[in-house]
Amino acid sequence: MHEPYDLLIRRAILFDGTGSVRYVADVAVHDGRIATISADPLPVDSAKRVIEADGLWLTPGFIDIHTHYDAELLLAPGLQESVRHGVTTCMVGSCSISMIYCDAEDASDIFTRVESIPREFVLPALRRIKTWNDASGYIAHLKSLPLGPNIASYMGHSDLRTAVMGLARAVDPKEKPTEAEMQAMEQHLNEGIDQGLLGLSGMTNPWDKVDGDRYRSAALPSVYAHWREYRRLHRLLRRRGAILQSAPNLNNPVNAVFYLFTSASLAMRRSLKTTLITLMDVKARPGLDRIVSAGTRFFNRWLGANFRWQALPQPFQVYADGIDFIIFEEFPAGEAALHLKRDFDRNKLFADPDYRARFKAEYQRKWGGRVWHRDFGDAHVIACPDASLVGKTVKQIADERGEHEVNTFLDLVIDYGRSLRWSTLIANHNPARVAANLNNDCAIIGFSDAGAHLRNMAFYNFGICMLQLASQQQAIMTPEKAVWRLTGEIADWYGIDAGKLFPGGRADMVLIDPDALRAAKVGEYAEARFDELGGLLRVVNRNDGVVKNVIINGNIAFENDQPASGLGTASVFGRFLPRIGRTAQ
C-alpha cells in the first residue's frame, strides 16, 4: 500500500494548462508534486486531506509576468494580495530595477519614486536586510524567505549599471562605461544566468525618475545607455538563450522598432526572446495598438523575431492623490512638481501664473509621447474633504466655477493636497480592442505591476478578469485557451517549471467556482492596510467567493478568501524558480 497522499481533490473539472479540453478528474498530491490524475474516483481514505470539488474548476496557478514585488518581498514575503487571486508564481526585477548588485541607498533611489513606494520604509529595510551584492547572494536570500508564491527574477540593467559605474556616472548622459566596466557587466549577467535568472530587464522611457536627494529626478540609469551598450548585453542574452524585458521610449515610440530588430534572427543569428510593456488600446493614442501588433506579427513571422507585448485583460483604471502619480512625469510642468518633496514648495509653484500657463500649454498639447489622455473631463473625484465635489469630474467643477480645468485642478491640489483623490480610465476602455489584443499571438498575458503604485492601481486579479471574459455569454475565447494563456503558454515561453498539471509536476493549483466567477464584479474599488508600510491604504481587488482554494507546493495557501496561518511566515509554499533550458556559455 502506498503512503497516504497529502491532499486529494475529488471530481474537479480539470484544466491542465495545455489548452486541452477540460474533463472531470481526481488529483492527488504528495510531497509538493502531483502524484496522480485519475478520471476514475480515488478512495477518500487514501489521503490526509480531501477537498470535494464537484463543479469547481481546477487550473494551474496563474503566473504574473510583470511585478515590482522586489521591496515587498523583503517586508511581507507572503504576497497575499496576489496569492488570494490564484497567482502562484511571480516575476520580479522588471523594468531595469532589481535589488541584486546596488548598495541599499542606490537600490532604494532607483526603485521608490518610479514605483511609488514610500522611501522612508524601503530604505531602512534595505539597510537592515541587504547583505548581498551579487546574483548568488540574492538568490540565496530569496531561498531563505518564507515565500508565498514562487519567484523568478530578472537582473535589472539600472541595478547592474549603477553597481559597476556608480550612480553618479550611471545617470550622467556624458558618461559611458569603460571597456573594463562593460566586461564587468557582461560577467555579472553571465553569472546571473548561470544562477537561473530569467535574463535582463531594461528601460528606455525617460519618465521614470530617481528618488532621494543626491540625483533626484534623473532618469533611471538604463535610460542613459547607448544602443551599443544595449547591443553587447543583448548579444550575450541571445547567446545564452535568455530573455530581454524592457519598456519603449514613450517620447519616441519608434524606438520599439529597434527592439523588434533586436529580437529578429537576422544574418543567421538566433532570435532573442523579447517582451515589452504594453499592448493596450490607449485613449491618448487611438489605433496605436493595431499598428504595433501588425508590425510585431510581421517581424515574428517573416524576420524570425520572438517578440511578445504584455497585455492586461481589464480596464486600466488609475487613481491619484492630488498630483502624486507617475503620469505627471510625462511633461515638464508635471515633472517639476513631482521633483519637489514639500507641499509648501509645490503649492507655491502651483500658484505661480507662469507655471500655470506652462502646465496648461503642456496639458493641451496633443502631439508627442504620452499615455495620459490629459482630459480632466475624464477625471472623477472619488474622495475629498469637500463632500460636494465627490462624484464630479474636475471639468464639471471648473465649469461651475467658470474657470479653466487646469486652474481648477491646481487650486484643488493647493486646497486639499493628497486628500483630493481622483480616478481616470487611461486604456482598455474598448471591450472589442481588449478582446482582440488578448487573442493576439504577439501578446503574452500579464502586466499587473503588482507591488508598485500602491495608491494608484490594482490588477492583482488579472487572472480572474481573463477567465471571466472567457466565461461570459459573448466569450472572447474558450476557458481552455484562457487558462493556457495564463499558465502553460507563459511557462513554456519563459522556460520555468510551472503552469501545467501532470503527474510528477508541481502542485501549484487554483480551485475556482465558475458560477461565482461569472457573477463577480471584478472592477470594484477596494482598499486594504499594508501594515509593513506604516498602515498605508493600498488599492486592492476583492472578488470573494470566486477562488475557493490556492495550493502552492502542495500546501493550501488560501481557502475561502482567508490566508493559511503560515502564509508569509512558514517556508512551505513558494520557491525560487530558476529558468530552465538556458544555453551554456
List the helices and strands and how they pair.
Blueprint: E1 7-14, E2 23-30, E3 33-38, E4 50-52, E5 57-60, E6 62-64, H1 72-75, H2 80-83, E7 87-92, H3 104-109, H4 112-115, H5 119-129, H6 135-144, E8 150-153, E9 155-156, H7 157-165, H8 167-170, H9 179-195, E10 199-201, H10 227-240, E11 243-246, H11 256-263, E12 273-277, H12 288-302, E13 306-311, E14 316-321, H13 332-339, H14 343-351, H15 353-364, E15 380-383, H16 394-401, H17 405-416, E16 421-427, H18 431-438, E17 443-445, H19 462-469, H20 479-486, H21 488-494, E18 509-512, H22 514-519, E19 526-530, E20 536-540, E21 547-552, E22 555-559, E23 562-563
Parallel strand pairs: 1-4, 1-5, 6-7, 7-8, 9-10, 10-11, 11-12, 12-13, 13-17
Antiparallel strand pairs: 1-2, 2-3, 5-18, 14-16, 15-16, 18-21, 19-20, 21-22, 22-23
Summarize the structure.
With 585 residues, this protein is an alpha/beta fold. It is 33% helix and 19% strand. The strands form 5 sheets. Strands 1, 2, 3, 4, 5, 18, 21, 22 and 23 form a 9-stranded mixed sheet that branches. A 6-stranded parallel sheet has the order 9-10-11-12-13-17, with helices on both faces.
Can you describe this structure?
There is one protein chain. By secondary structure, this protein is of the alpha/beta class. The strands form five sheets. Strands 1, 2, 3, 4, 5, 18, 21, 22 and 23 form a nine-stranded mixed β-sheet that branches. The longest helix is centred in the first third of the chain and has 17 residues, at 179-195. The radius of gyration is 24 Å and the shape is globular.
